[in-house]
């Protein structure tokens, strides 16, 4: 007898599928990588199935992929968005991932145009701001937005915490039910000019930097934060609320 039950119904309704964009890294050889900490909260708190998306521009048919995903998360990364994407010259010291720029902007643009929800964390927020026509700055007060110790071990990399004020009536403020929260932060780029049509969801208390924004240009939610809600999310009510918002947006798209 065959071990397969052909044509058997899968128990329960299928979970929404969210794409999570990888980065180009080197581990003895070029690899595609994404930190596990971005994946687990999407399963646990958003109720989604995760599909890793390679950041390989020549291998990606973003039009085809956008038609198969219910949502997209642009993750944080050790690289920065290339200055050429928003009219700024790059320097020799910039850590870039040009293929990631290409795939992120093309795929996110197609998803948004199709009315599918798109989310960003850290670099993902910066990519989305550029996609909406905004610009970035690398002139940040590191004492507020990252540890000043570049040799910080991974285990303590996200120990740096600062406060953000949530915009009254915004998606985050309504979900978190607090006027301000403390967040983990580690980034070298930030928003300079906000992209067209984006609504500010949070500001840094220290210097007013835009720390989160939202939009709904084509019927699907766009939501991005500069901080890292995925870090130690099991102990963070605000982090759990962020991923629950992702789950609700994915569900709303599937229910159309």
Give an account of the 3D structure:
The chain has helices spanning 36-44, 62-66, 98-113, 123-131, 142-145, 154-157, 171-176, 237-254, and strands spanning 17-21, 23-26, 30-33, 49-53, 71-74, 118-121, 136-137, 161-166, 180-184, 190-191, 199-204, 210-215, 222-225. The chain is an alpha/beta fold and 256 residues long. It has one domain (17-254): Class I glutamine amidotransferase (GATase) domain (Rossmann fold, 3-Layer(aba) Sandwich), CATH 3.40.50. The strands form 3 sheets. Strands 4-1-5-6-13-12-11-8-9 form a 9-stranded mixed sheet, sandwiched between helices. A two-stranded antiparallel sheet has the order 2-3. The protein has a two-stranded antiparallel ribbon with strand order 7-10. Strand 12 (210-215) and strand 13 (222-225) form a beta hairpin. Helix 3 (98-113) crosses helix 4 (123-131). The chain is globular.
Give a brief description.
By secondary structure, the protein is α/β, with parallel strands linked by helices.
> Mean pLDDT, nearest integer?
90
CATH architect. name: 3-Layer(aba) Sandwich
Strand order of the largest sheet: 4-1-5-6-13-12-11-8-9
Rg value:
18 Å
Distance between the termini: 41 Å
Q: How many structurally independent domains? A: 1
Quote the CATH topology: Rossmann fold
Q: Characterize the largest beta sheet: strand count, sense, and whether it forms a barrel.
A: 9 strands, mixed
Strand content: 15-25%
Please identify which CATH superfamily we are dealing with: Class I glutamine amidotransferase (GATase) domain
Order of helices and strands: EEEHEHEHEHEHHEHEEEEEH
User: Which stretches of 5+ consecutive residues score pLDDT under 50?
Assistant: none
Share of helical residues: 25-40%
The total of helices stands at: 8
What's the number of extended β-strand segments?
A: 13
CATH top level is Alpha Beta
- Gross morphology: globular
**Structural class per helix/strand content?**
alpha/beta
